[in-house]
Amino acid sequence: MRTARSATAVLSVLAALLSPTAAHAAATERHAAPGDSVTLPVRDALAALPVQTENRTGYERTKFRHWTDADRDGCNTRLEVLKAEAVSAPVQGPNCVLTGGSWYSPYDDRYLDSASMLDVDHLVPLAEAWDSGASQWTAKERELYANDLDDARDLIAVSAASNRSKADKDPSEWMPPYAGYRCQYDTDWVADKMRWGLSIDATERDVLTQQLVGCPDWPITVTLAR
After folding, report:
1. Which of 48, 188, 190, 212 is deepest in the core (most CB within 10 A)?
2. Would you say 157 and 190 are in contact if contact means Cβ atoms under 8 Å apart?
3. Residue 11: is its pLDDT beyond 60?
4. In Å, how far are 11, 13, 63, 129 from 45, measured between CA atoms?
5. pLDDT bracket for residue 31 (50, 70, 90)
6. Does pLDDT of 13 surpass 50?
7. Is the confidence at residue 7, as pLDDT, over 80?
8. Class of residue 151 by CB neighbours under 10 A (exposed 0-12, middle 13-18, buried 19+)
9. How far is the C-alpha of 180 from the C-alpha of 201, rounded, in Å?
10. 32 CB contacts (<8 Å, ≥6 apart)?
11. Cα–Cα dist 177/194, whole Å
12. CA–CA distance from 160 to each of 11, 105, 110, 183, 185 (Å)?
């Protein structure tokens, strides 16, 4: 299970892998902190993630309060994602009811013309986050994770069928049916775990390492949430 000292160690590794100029600044500050931005090639970012055995003891989905309306505009997190990711904008009615519009589901390369046909997926599922360190977070931190609108990679509108096929699986157990999206999926998975200081298990690390060999070593920029 993740400890405060392991979190500090991860951030120190990330700082050491920055560009020379940024690394010097990071060394001066000693540790990266929430709100700091870190840029790394995805393979280096993966290598910097702590490897821990997963533990689902005590997990309940209700421990992640989700689909809140943080800005109190009448649209909860799920609806905010649907509005932001629409290919053609839906009409917003009273109580943020969405009609019309269209969406692209990258998991299975499908266009959908009804909000009811989509789920908003936590790219790293709530159960996986729990297993990877969120069991030690405060309730407020878990709520922020479950409603993270500050990084577009963390929540994604996809077909309900593909999301339910994925369930709470990690990339060693499930990959998007559409092969053309898999490199992006792996890259975003690493970015999400990096952003929230989550660990990976050994099998997850090995599978991601193997899969990313066949992908561009894209640089990813992450603003640390923790």
Report:
1. 190
2. no
3. no
4. 11, 9, 28, 17
5. low
6. no
7. no
8. middle
9. 25
10. 11, 14, 15, 26, 38, 224
11. 24
12. 35, 9, 11, 21, 17
**Whole-number Å distance between alpha carbons of 174 and 127:** 15
Half-sphere exposure of 113 (CA within 13 A, CB side): 1
> What contacts 21, CB < 8 A, 6 or more positions away?
none
Q: Which residue, among 211, 206, 161, 162, has the nearest Cα to 188 in the 3D structure?
A: 211
Q: What's the pLDDT band for 32 if we cut at 50, 70, 90?
A: confident
Inter-CA distances, 32 with 36, 50, 170, 224, Å: 6, 16, 27, 8
User: 68 is written with which tokens?
Assistant: 């809140």
Checking phi first, is residue 153 left (phi over 0); if not, alpha (psi -120 to 50) or beta? Answer: alpha
What residue spans of 86-159 are helical by DSSP H? Answer: 126-131, 139-146
For the cut 50, the answer to whether the pLDDT of residue 22 exceeds it is no
**Mean pLDDT, the chain, integer:** 89
- Write down the residue that tokens 């298990």 correspond to: 201
